[in-house]
Amino acid sequence: MVTKDDLKLANIIWDYMNVNNPDPPISDIILCLGSIDTLPAEKSAELYLKGKAPLIVFSGKSGRNSKYLKSNKSEAQILANVAIKKGVPQEAILIEEKSTNTGQNFRYSKKLLAMKGIKVKRLIVSHMPSSLKRDYLIFKKQWREPQPEIFMVSPDIPLEKYYERGFSGKFTLKEVIKDMLGDFQRIKVGFDKGHSAYEEIPEKIKNIYYKLVEKNYTKQLIKDKKGNPLPV
Hints:
Blueprint: H1 4-17, E1 29-33, H2 39-49, E2 56-59, H3 75-85, E3 93-96, H4 102-115, E4 122-126, H5 132-142, E5 149-153, H6 159-165, H7 173-192, H8 203-214
Parallel strand pairs: 1-2, 1-4, 2-3, 4-5
Helix pairs in contact: 1-7, 1-8, 2-3, 4-5, 5-7, 6-7
Protein backbone atom coordinates (compact mmCIF):
# COMPACT_ATOMS: atom_id res chain seq x y z
CA MET A 1 0.00 0.00 0.00
CA VAL A 2 1.19 3.52 -0.86
CA THR A 3 0.71 5.83 2.13
CA LYS A 4 -0.01 9.55 1.84
CA ASP A 5 3.51 10.27 3.04
CA ASP A 6 4.99 7.92 0.45
CA LEU A 7 2.97 9.58 -2.31
CA LYS A 8 4.04 13.03 -1.18
CA LEU A 9 7.70 12.00 -1.36
CA ALA A 10 7.28 10.20 -4.68
CA ASN A 11 5.62 13.24 -6.24
CA ILE A 12 8.72 15.33 -5.57
CA ILE A 13 10.87 12.87 -7.52
CA TRP A 14 8.15 12.62 -10.20
CA ASP A 15 8.31 16.40 -10.69
CA TYR A 16 12.11 16.27 -10.78
CA MET A 17 12.13 13.59 -13.48
CA ASN A 18 9.29 15.05 -15.56
CA VAL A 19 11.08 17.73 -17.59
CA ASN A 20 8.06 18.00 -19.87
CA ASN A 21 7.67 20.72 -22.48
CA PRO A 22 3.88 21.21 -22.72
CA ASP A 23 4.00 22.96 -26.09
CA PRO A 24 7.05 21.97 -28.15
CA PRO A 25 7.72 23.88 -31.38
CA ILE A 26 7.32 22.40 -34.84
CA SER A 27 10.11 19.87 -35.27
CA ASP A 28 11.54 17.47 -37.82
CA ILE A 29 10.79 14.26 -35.94
CA ILE A 30 8.88 12.89 -32.97
CA LEU A 31 10.82 10.03 -31.37
CA CYS A 32 8.72 7.84 -29.09
CA LEU A 33 10.92 5.70 -26.85
CA GLY A 34 9.94 2.10 -26.22
CA SER A 35 8.38 0.81 -23.01
CA ILE A 36 5.26 -1.08 -22.00
CA ASP A 37 3.54 2.27 -21.48
CA THR A 38 1.34 3.18 -24.44
CA LEU A 39 0.46 6.69 -23.24
CA PRO A 40 3.60 8.25 -24.82
CA ALA A 41 2.43 6.78 -28.14
CA GLU A 42 -0.91 8.54 -27.67
CA LYS A 43 0.98 11.75 -26.89
CA SER A 44 3.09 11.32 -30.01
CA ALA A 45 -0.04 10.84 -32.12
CA GLU A 46 -1.61 13.93 -30.56
CA LEU A 47 1.43 16.05 -31.43
CA TYR A 48 1.59 14.66 -34.97
CA LEU A 49 -2.08 15.45 -35.56
CA LYS A 50 -1.44 18.99 -34.31
CA GLY A 51 1.23 19.37 -36.99
CA LYS A 52 4.19 19.38 -34.62
CA ALA A 53 6.23 17.04 -36.86
CA PRO A 54 5.72 15.18 -40.15
CA LEU A 55 7.10 11.86 -38.93
CA ILE A 56 7.12 9.67 -35.81
CA VAL A 57 9.85 7.14 -35.06
CA PHE A 58 8.85 4.39 -32.64
CA SER A 59 11.93 2.79 -31.12
CA GLY A 60 12.35 -0.37 -29.07
CA LYS A 61 12.45 -4.13 -29.24
CA SER A 62 12.18 -4.91 -25.52
CA GLY A 63 13.20 -3.63 -22.11
CA ARG A 64 13.25 -4.52 -18.45
CA ASN A 65 9.44 -4.61 -18.20
CA SER A 66 8.59 -6.20 -21.55
CA LYS A 67 7.58 -9.49 -19.94
CA TYR A 68 4.39 -7.81 -18.75
CA LEU A 69 3.21 -7.33 -22.34
CA LYS A 70 3.03 -11.06 -23.09
CA SER A 71 3.30 -10.32 -26.81
CA ASN A 72 5.52 -11.44 -29.67
CA LYS A 73 5.45 -7.93 -31.11
CA SER A 74 8.19 -5.43 -30.38
CA GLU A 75 7.43 -2.47 -28.13
CA ALA A 76 7.90 -0.21 -31.15
CA GLN A 77 5.27 -2.07 -33.17
CA ILE A 78 2.80 -2.04 -30.28
CA LEU A 79 3.27 1.72 -29.85
CA ALA A 80 2.98 2.32 -33.59
CA ASN A 81 -0.33 0.45 -33.65
CA VAL A 82 -1.62 2.73 -30.89
CA ALA A 83 -0.72 5.79 -32.95
CA ILE A 84 -2.34 4.37 -36.08
CA LYS A 85 -5.58 3.80 -34.15
CA LYS A 86 -5.39 7.46 -33.12
CA GLY A 87 -5.29 8.52 -36.77
CA VAL A 88 -1.59 8.66 -37.68
CA PRO A 89 -1.09 7.30 -41.21
CA GLN A 90 1.29 4.38 -41.69
CA GLU A 91 3.42 6.40 -44.10
CA ALA A 92 4.17 8.91 -41.32
CA ILE A 93 5.72 6.21 -39.12
CA LEU A 94 9.18 4.64 -38.96
CA ILE A 95 9.88 1.67 -36.71
CA GLU A 96 13.20 0.83 -35.08
CA GLU A 97 12.84 -2.51 -33.31
CA LYS A 98 16.34 -3.69 -32.44
CA SER A 99 17.09 -1.56 -29.37
CA THR A 100 16.81 -2.95 -25.84
CA ASN A 101 17.79 0.13 -23.82
CA THR A 102 17.48 3.90 -24.03
CA GLY A 103 20.99 4.48 -25.33
CA GLN A 104 20.28 2.14 -28.22
CA ASN A 105 16.92 3.87 -28.79
CA PHE A 106 18.82 7.05 -29.62
CA ARG A 107 21.76 5.52 -31.48
CA TYR A 108 19.73 3.14 -33.62
CA SER A 109 17.05 5.73 -34.39
CA LYS A 110 19.71 8.21 -35.45
CA LYS A 111 21.23 5.57 -37.72
CA LEU A 112 17.82 4.71 -39.21
CA LEU A 113 17.10 8.36 -39.97
CA ALA A 114 20.53 8.80 -41.56
CA MET A 115 19.91 5.76 -43.77
CA LYS A 116 16.63 7.36 -44.88
CA GLY A 117 18.42 10.62 -45.63
CA ILE A 118 16.39 12.47 -43.00
CA LYS A 119 18.17 15.38 -41.34
CA VAL A 120 17.12 16.25 -37.81
CA LYS A 121 17.71 19.78 -36.54
CA ARG A 122 14.86 19.80 -34.05
CA LEU A 123 13.65 16.70 -32.20
CA ILE A 124 10.68 15.94 -29.93
CA VAL A 125 11.21 12.97 -27.59
CA SER A 126 8.12 11.36 -26.09
CA HIS A 127 8.27 9.04 -23.09
CA MET A 128 6.94 8.46 -19.59
CA PRO A 129 7.00 11.43 -17.16
CA SER A 130 9.07 9.36 -14.73
CA SER A 131 11.85 8.80 -17.29
CA LEU A 132 12.28 12.13 -19.09
CA LYS A 133 15.25 13.57 -17.20
CA ARG A 134 17.18 10.32 -17.53
CA ASP A 135 16.25 10.14 -21.23
CA TYR A 136 17.57 13.65 -21.80
CA LEU A 137 20.90 12.87 -20.12
CA ILE A 138 21.29 9.69 -22.18
CA PHE A 139 20.49 11.64 -25.35
CA LYS A 140 23.25 14.15 -24.55
CA LYS A 141 25.76 11.31 -24.36
CA GLN A 142 24.52 8.91 -27.03
CA TRP A 143 23.33 11.12 -29.91
CA ARG A 144 26.62 12.06 -31.55
CA GLU A 145 27.26 15.49 -33.01
CA PRO A 146 25.65 17.34 -34.55
CA GLN A 147 22.98 17.15 -31.85
CA PRO A 148 19.55 18.50 -32.73
CA GLU A 149 17.64 20.89 -30.53
CA ILE A 150 15.60 18.60 -28.28
CA PHE A 151 12.21 18.97 -26.59
CA MET A 152 11.05 16.39 -24.05
CA VAL A 153 7.33 15.60 -23.80
CA SER A 154 5.18 13.30 -21.70
CA PRO A 155 1.48 12.62 -21.02
CA ASP A 156 -0.03 15.27 -18.74
CA ILE A 157 -1.26 12.90 -16.03
CA PRO A 158 -0.32 13.13 -12.32
CA LEU A 159 1.53 10.32 -10.59
CA GLU A 160 -1.40 9.20 -8.48
CA LYS A 161 -3.54 8.73 -11.61
CA TYR A 162 -0.92 7.47 -14.03
CA TYR A 163 -1.14 3.79 -13.18
CA GLU A 164 -4.85 3.73 -14.12
CA ARG A 165 -4.01 4.17 -17.82
CA GLY A 166 -0.24 3.93 -18.08
CA PHE A 167 2.03 0.88 -18.28
CA SER A 168 -0.62 -0.99 -20.27
CA GLY A 169 -2.63 -1.39 -17.05
CA LYS A 170 -0.02 -3.82 -15.70
CA PHE A 171 1.29 -1.70 -12.81
CA THR A 172 -0.14 -0.62 -9.49
CA LEU A 173 0.70 2.82 -8.13
CA LYS A 174 3.39 1.23 -5.98
CA GLU A 175 4.97 -0.41 -9.03
CA VAL A 176 4.93 2.89 -10.93
CA ILE A 177 6.90 4.44 -8.05
CA LYS A 178 9.34 1.53 -8.05
CA ASP A 179 9.88 1.92 -11.79
CA MET A 180 10.44 5.65 -11.37
CA LEU A 181 13.05 5.10 -8.67
CA GLY A 182 14.81 2.66 -11.00
CA ASP A 183 15.12 5.39 -13.62
CA PHE A 184 16.16 7.95 -11.00
CA GLN A 185 18.93 5.69 -9.72
CA ARG A 186 20.14 5.11 -13.28
CA ILE A 187 20.95 8.83 -13.64
CA LYS A 188 24.00 8.26 -11.43
CA VAL A 189 24.67 4.66 -12.44
CA GLY A 190 24.41 5.56 -16.13
CA PHE A 191 26.94 8.34 -15.76
CA ASP A 192 29.32 6.08 -13.81
CA LYS A 193 29.15 3.54 -16.63
CA GLY A 194 29.65 6.15 -19.33
CA HIS A 195 26.14 5.83 -20.75
CA SER A 196 24.75 9.27 -19.93
CA ALA A 197 25.74 12.88 -19.26
CA TYR A 198 26.38 14.19 -15.75
CA GLU A 199 23.59 15.57 -13.57
CA GLU A 200 24.18 17.12 -10.16
CA ILE A 201 21.27 15.67 -8.18
CA PRO A 202 20.16 18.00 -5.34
CA GLU A 203 20.71 16.58 -1.85
CA LYS A 204 17.04 17.09 -1.03
CA ILE A 205 16.05 14.82 -3.91
CA LYS A 206 18.64 12.21 -2.94
CA ASN A 207 17.34 12.15 0.63
CA ILE A 208 13.78 11.61 -0.56
CA TYR A 209 14.95 8.77 -2.78
CA TYR A 210 16.68 7.07 0.16
CA LYS A 211 13.58 7.44 2.32
CA LEU A 212 11.58 5.56 -0.31
CA VAL A 213 14.32 2.95 -0.59
CA GLU A 214 13.99 2.40 3.17
CA LYS A 215 10.29 1.82 2.57
CA ASN A 216 11.17 -1.02 0.19
CA TYR A 217 10.44 0.60 -3.19
CA THR A 218 13.45 -1.27 -4.52
CA LYS A 219 12.26 -3.81 -7.10
CA GLN A 220 13.62 -1.92 -10.13
CA LEU A 221 16.90 -0.81 -8.57
CA ILE A 222 20.32 -2.01 -9.68
CA LYS A 223 22.00 -3.78 -6.77
CA ASP A 224 25.55 -4.83 -5.88
CA LYS A 225 26.66 -8.40 -5.23
CA LYS A 226 25.42 -8.15 -1.64
CA GLY A 227 21.96 -7.11 -2.76
CA ASN A 228 22.33 -3.46 -1.76
CA PRO A 229 21.08 -0.78 -4.19
CA LEU A 230 23.88 1.13 -5.91
CA PRO A 231 24.18 4.69 -4.54
CA VAL A 232 22.96 7.87 -6.22
